[in-house]
Specification:
The chain is mainly α and about 160 residues long. The chain has helices at about 5-15, 15-25, 30-40, 50-55, 60-75, 75-80, 85-90, 100-105, 110-120, 125-135, 140, 145-160. It has one domain (about 5-160). The two termini are about 15 Å apart.
Length: about 160
């Protein structure tokens, strides 16, 4: 069974959660990332910042640092130093451009929600960067729930049908 068949089966069942692991195992990280990005931009799902905050809350400290570093790489630490009450400005040492897992674990999901929302306003392409990061950690994506998964799978099917 090919990826297109798996996607069709997942979408027809109406239970994306039950099929997501199989899709993630068979899809490329780029395709998975594109699906996640579609879910993060969809008007059927919570706002990007909220979704990132939710994922952050379910992530290991290493994954938390990874997503923050994706956002920092897109915008730079100076652009984000005053967001969320200046939390990044307080935890980053002068000249430091990457967050460590220990530093990341000091942030709350609500602070990361605010950071991600600000990042999206400043640079909408951050959605793609963060989505590609989470494509590398596909198990976390299921935290977003059925609607987000269905949007992601529908986008992946659309892309697979065109290819």
């Amino acid at each position: 069974m090919g990826l297109l068949d798996i996607l069709q089966q997942a979408l027809n069942s109406g239970n994306a959660d039950a099929h997501f692991d199989q899709v993630a195992q068979n899809a490329s990280k780029e395709d998975l990332g594109a699906g996640v990005a579609a879910a993060m931009r969809s008007d059927q799902t919570p706002a990007f910042g909220n979704m990132v905050g939710q994922l952050f809350g379910h992530s290991s400290s290493t994954q938390q640092a990874g997503v923050l570093n994706q956002i920092l790489a897109t915008l730079g630490p100076t652009a984000l130093s005053g967001v969320a009450g200046g939390v990044l400005g307080r935890i980053l040492q002068p000249g430091q451009t990457q967050v460590t897992p220990d530093q990341a674990s000091q942030l709350s999901p609500s602070q990361v929600t605010e950071i991600a929302a600000h990042a999206e306003q400043q640079h909408p392409g951050v959605v793609d960067q963060v989505s590609q990061f989470y494509a590398q950690h596909a198990g976390l994506i299921k935290v977003l729930g059925g609607t987000a998964l269905m949007v992601a799978l529908a986008k992946m099917k659309e892309n697979a049908s065109q290819g």
